[in-house]
Amino acid sequence: MTANQKSTHLRQLKNQLIRLQDYGIDEIPCKNQLDLSSPSLPVRSGHTGIAQSLDQIRAEMGECDRCKLCEGRKNIVFGSGNPNALLVFVGEGPGAEEDEQGLPFVGRAGKKLTEIIEKGMGLNRAKDTYICNIVKCRPPGNRDPESDEVGACIPFLEKQLQAIRPKVIVTLGKPATETLLGRKVAITKERGQWQEYKGIKLMPTFHPAYLLRAYTLENRKAVHEDMKKVLAELKR
Ligand code: URA
After folding, report:
1. Distance 12 CA to ligand 1 centre (A)
2. Interval 9-28: pLDDT, tens
3. 96-118 pLDDT tens trace
C-alpha cells in the first residue's frame, strides 16, 4: 500500500468514526452479540441514520419548488466533482451559464476558479474537488440569494457536506462564508483565516467573480496565499 493510499484509508476511517460520533455513538462496543440494527442505538437530534449519498440527496431535492427561485430557473445546479473529494468549494449561486448547463462554475467566474484549482494549486478540478453553491437555482439578475431562499436550500448543502465530509471546505465570498459560519463576516478581514464548520476546516476566500472585478495584484496574491494554506492542510 502506498503512503497516499494509506492516508486515504485513514481519512475514510476517521470520517466514518466522526459520522458515528455525529449519530451519538462515542464508543465502539465489541460484544459478539452486538445488533447493529437495534432501534435503541442513540441518534443525535437532526440525524436519522447513516449519511445519505449525493444521489439520494439529489433525488430528495427532486424538481424543487421550496422557494421562489424555482420560478425563473432552467436547471437545478446541484454540484459537480468527486463525491469523495478532500476539498469542497462552496459558492453563492448559479449564474446564467450554470443555469443553462445545470453545472456549477462553468461561466467566467468558473473559468477563473478552474484556473485557481488547476494552475494555482496543481489539482484536477473534477478528480480532486467537489463544487457546489449555497442555493441551487439562479437568483434573478445574479443578485445575492435572499435569506428565505438560503433557508430553504441550506439543508441540502448541509447534507452534501455530511455525505462528502471533506478535509477542507473553501467558501467563496461573503454569502457562502456567512451561511456556513452562521454569522456576519467581513470577508476582506477574515479571508485567509481558518474557521471550522461542524468539525471540518473551513477557509474563506474571495469569490472568483470579485477577483475578476477587482483584478489587483493584492487580491490575486491574497487568494494565492489562502490556497497555499489549503494545500498545506490537504497534504498534512
Ligand atoms: N458563481 C457562483 O457563486 N456559483 C456558480 O456556480 C457560478 C458563479
Report:
1. 29
2. 555 555 455 544 544 555 65
3. 999 999 999 999 999 999 999 99
Q: How many structural domains comprise the chain?
A: 2
Which ligand 1 atom lies nearest to the CA of residue 131? 6
Cβ–ligand 1 contact at 145 (below 6 Å):
no
Q: Say if ligand 1 is within 6 A of residue 81 CB.
A: no
Q: What is the rounded CA–CA span in Å between residue 41 and residue 50?
A: 12
Ligand 1 proximity of 139 Cβ (cutoff 6 Å) = no
- Residue 196's Cβ-count burial label (10 Å; 0-12, 13-18, 19+) is exposed
* Grid cell locating 217: 495584484
Q: What is d(CA 156, CA 43) in angstroms, rounded to the nearest whole number?
A: 20
* Mean pLDDT, residues 114-140: 98
Let me know whether 36 and 134 are in one domain.
no
Instruction: Report d(CA 32, CA 236) in Å as an integer.
Output: 36
Quote the domain boundaries for residue 41.
1-50
Q: What is the DSSP letter of 204?
A: E
